[in-house]
Amino acid sequence: MSDTAPRASGATLPIPVTVLTGFLGAGKTTLLNRLLKHPALRDTAVLINEFGEIGLDHLLVERLDGDTVLLNAGCLCCTVRGDLVRALRDLAARIAKGHVIRRVVVETTGLADPAPILQTLMSDPLVLSRYRLDGVVTLVDAANGMATLDAQPEAVKQAAVADRLVLTKTDLTAPEQVAVLSARLRGLNPGAPLLEARQGEIAPDTLLDCGLYDATRKHPDVRRWLDAEAWQAQEHPHHHHHHDPNRHDSRIHAFCLTFDAPLPWDGLATWLEVLTMTRGESVLRVKGLLNLEGEDRPVAIHGVQHLFHPPVKLERWPEGDDRRSRLVFILRDLDRATVERGLRAFAESARQQAVIAAGDGQPPGTG
User: How far apart are CA 113 and CA 154, in angstroms?
Assistant: First the structure.
């Protein structure tokens, strides 16, 4: 499977990009200001999106100070997407001239739908050649989180696609209220670690280097999110019955499929293509660690709606891993049975074709 090899990048590795999101008032700017004072965030460029006057003829991109860029012409998930790409290209040009930038943080407006942002980071050729999506960090206001999730579909999507969920304002919220919100977030996105920031303080290493798709380092979080299904089975055996059907997140659910036997890449790739072409709007996120037929190393895949990142062959399996394939899905208005049935059908078809090819190369009755 030659297309799973990491892309060559010469002496310069792709720069990690962290997307910091969360609904209005969740505390993104406060947390970001604290993080930027930490040595781990040295040489970090920050792209900040805020609402401002939307020009009819052009969008404004204004450098505020150092490596901070204000994208102030509207919501980052729509009108400013072009400016996001241009800002990243500008940073890449500066790096090429010797300017040191080791990380990029994109802080979105609280109203942003994160999926188009991720698609932008995963689709522009120049961006892909210089940057890699390191992870999505979503902040949730503990005091107002339940009401926000009930009323705002953007907040639900922000939580559903996160690699890290961070509760803020827990010191101002009753413990039982925090517990109820935590349970809801774990049900919405069981694969994301649920962390806590007090007054904007949190250790940077818990948020950065999510790392699953960085083939140059180990992947300590692989098993945590890939074992999401086990958590659901133990804690919520009838999980799908516990949500109020009037809540927005009753339409969004997460699950993990596991496969003991190696999967055929041809069948899996074909199925993913069909899935994204026909139901891409329902595929909020897919993450997977795969044991493929003919491969002795794990292969990571990562997709958002209609777009899939090129598969990446990792250096090794996590220590002690049982080497099963795991696929985590975060879907909206698409049931698990349909997805699982389609995957198994395409995999079985690919295996049958391989058997035929290994024989006389002709299907029965066609010779």
Answer: 5
Q: Is 120 exposed, middle or buried (0-12, 13-18, 19+ CB in 10 A)?
A: buried
Q: Does residue 140 share a domain with residue 15?
A: yes
Q: What is the residue type of 335?
A: D
Tokens 């997977």, located at residue: 288
How many domains does the chain divide into? 2
Q: Is the pLDDT of residue 61 over 70?
A: no
* Cα–Cα distance measured from residue 271 to residue 208, given in angstroms and rounded to the nearest whole number: 32
Report residue 122's pLDDT band, with 50, 70 and 90 as the boundaries. confident
Tens of pLDDT along 199-214?
778 999 899 887 654 4
CA distance 19 to 48: 10
Domain hosting residue 226, numbered range: 222-358
Reported as a single tens digit per residue, the pLDDT across 297-317 is 989 887 877 777 778 888 888
